Amino acid sequence: MDRSEEAKLRVARQFIEAIPHARALGMQLDRLHDGVAEISMPYDLRLVGDPRTGVIHGGAVSALMDTCCGAAVMSHPEAPAGTATIDLRIDYMRAATPGQRITARAACYHVTRTVAFVRATAHDEDDARPVASATGAFTIERPHEGAKP
Fold first, then answer.
1. Disulfide-capable partner of 116 in 56, 64, 73, 120 (CB 3.0 to 4.6 Å)?
2. Which residues have CB under 8 Å from 120's CB, separation 6+?
């Protein structure tokens, strides 16, 4: 990993650690490289949506996927200074297995001057069967010309 990749990884970790809901959900940045991000969160009884089944609430999965998509945009080679969610569509395919860590993987597949497009999936320990999939559009905030980095 070169210095610029290390710097991006450090900035992304600091960004995620600074988001209160990311800290509360126990999100962990597992991978970040050239427009691809992987973030996971542990199973936590505080996040259960249905006490009868022990299934994690969809809102926690949604927050994980949104954060992962944003990290993918921020790691894109065109290196935007920042990003925000414009639109995020999430399709829930099945309940996550109670007790298992959930991992989101996102890839920023297209970038215009002002918008980045991302696809993502979320899995529990069964990688073959996604818990959810997402597509989204994110703003690209570029540094102002002449601004100091």
1. 73
2. 65, 68, 69, 72, 104, 105, 106, 107, 133, 134, 135, 136
Confidence (pLDDT) at 1: 58
Look at strands 102-111 and 36-41 and give their pairing: antiparallel
49, 41, 53, 34: which is closest to 104 by C-alpha?
Answer: 41
Average pLDDT, the chain: 89
Q: Is 3-139 CATH 3.90.226.10?
A: no
Cα–Cα dist 143/28, whole Å:
27
pTM of structure: 0.88
Q: Which of 10-14, 27-31, 44-48, 139-143 has the lowest mean pLDDT?
A: 10-14
At 9, which helix (H) or strand (E)?
Answer: helix 3-18
The token pair at 120 is 């993502």
Q: Where are the domains of the chain?
A: 3-139
CA distance 95 to 36: 25
Element (H, E) at 33: strand 28-33
Q: Return d(Cα 149, Cα 147) in angstroms, integer.
A: 6
